[in-house]
DNA sequence: CGTCTCTTTGAAACGCGTCAATGGCTGTGG
DNA sequence: CCACAGCCATTGACGCGTTTCAAAGAGACG
């Protein structure tokens, strides 16, 4: 496990102080770490496993915002007083995370300005990510959005194997659909098409990308 | 002009210090304040007029993210070292804004932690805004997205007149289309439909909402 | 008064959502 | 060890919402 970007620029003493204040937590698959609409109590850093962040609209539609893997943090909004989570965080596999209650994280980020800056930087990174996501939803077609989503998943949390880049956590068609703003049917159709074209391999809840460049081409192609 | 949320919780002295460090700037319509991809040099607070924040994708498609009106700030990313603007800021009408170069805003936010917290809070607010925007793009139909976008514009920067709530800056069909992820044709069709239904009044680059509740109903209706 | 930008409306094509039915993998209990 | 139940995935047919393309009208501005 390498040092997460959250700790960059911090002295060993500071890192120790932060770690000492953390409360480790184990999560079973499908267990909730945060619930949309509830007070934003904790800030968390995932060490092992993956969370999925999803949002349900007033109409009841579910959207998947992103996956949070080892070294990624979640819940920066907990640093803002009296805030509530805009989305829910659910473990997709067995998970270990460090958590800091609001009071503690607030105190730490106050005492260690560099930590606050790191979280600030992380937030702006996330912001540009969400912006490009919105951009794609607004302007691109389903095949391109799906291809890009797969490439991002592979790049962010993929493990390289002889058989291609495997996405290192379970992903269902339904989840890919919620991530790209489409239906599981369309996802299924596109992925079997790509599988016969030799671009990727799929299993139940698993995806491996064989030909990233080919997918990239599918992502930028205007017409099939 | 009332105090912007950016200054909340700051002492008069602190506010004076911040204002003293600002560089006022005048913008003509269509003038650029920031350009996507360029180093994020300045943080800005709009006093008069409106900016539009828009993003162009690699494919050349243009998306409108939001409008920035009096009291709103822009460019929090300038507080992050070596960052670049993820979008462009362009004046839609005559504009006056206070601007702080990166060095200055960085120093101020370092010296005045409350200012940094305010900007942090603003960022998280923007984040949840962009998240619901993505949510809507992913799950809702064009009429609902457009109705909501109009209601938001009216709520955020609308002026109440005897003839309804007017959106206080020029907005073209094209811009509404870029805001909602559709085409100006569809926007035009929907708006003339709503105009004959008595929900709103339109002119060239102007919109006034007559019946917010009616629009709200159109926004939540599953089928027409 | 002419030009440019913004807007309207129509008709046709198509992407993709929707519904329905089937098939396969996984884990569980007899 | 086999059978069942439940979840996940596949595939087809159909219909509707939107985009696309074309062409013309209406304000605004110099």
Sequence-ordered SSE layout with sheet pairings:
Two copies of one chain form a homodimer.
Chain A: H1 12-21, E1 23-27, E2 32-34, E3 42-48, E4 51-56, E5 62-68, E6 73-74, E7 88-91, E8 95-101, H2 102-111, H3 113-139, H4 142-157, E9 158-161, E10 164-167, H5 173-180, H6 184-196, E11 200-203, E12 206-209, H7 212-220
Antiparallel strand pairs in A: 1-8, 2-7, 3-6, 3-8, 4-5, 4-7, 9-10, 10-12, 11-12
Helix pairs in contact in A: 2-3, 4-5, 4-7, 5-6
Chain A binds a DNA duplex (30 and 30 nucleotides) through helix 6.
Widest sheet, order of strands of chain A? 1-8-3-6
Share of residues in strands of chain A: 25-35%
The description of the largest β-sheet of chain A is:
4 strands, antiparallel
- What does the average pLDDT of chain A come to? 94
Quaternary state reads homodimer
Rg of chain A:
18 Å
| DSSP summary, beta strand count of chain A | 12
Explain this structure:
The structure is a homodimer of 224-residue chains. The first copy, chain A, is an alpha+beta fold and 224 residues long. Chain A contains seven helices and twelve strands. The first copy, chain A, has helices at 12-21, 102-111, 113-139, 142-157, 173-180, 184-196, 212-220; strands at 23-27, 32-34, 42-48, 51-56, 62-68, 73-74, 88-91, 95-101, 158-161, 164-167, 200-203, 206-209. In chain A, the strands form three sheets. Chain A has a four-stranded antiparallel β-sheet. In chain A, a hairpin with a 5-residue loop joins β4 (51-56) and β5. Chain A is globular and about 55 Å long. The interface between A and B is large, with 40 and 40 residues.
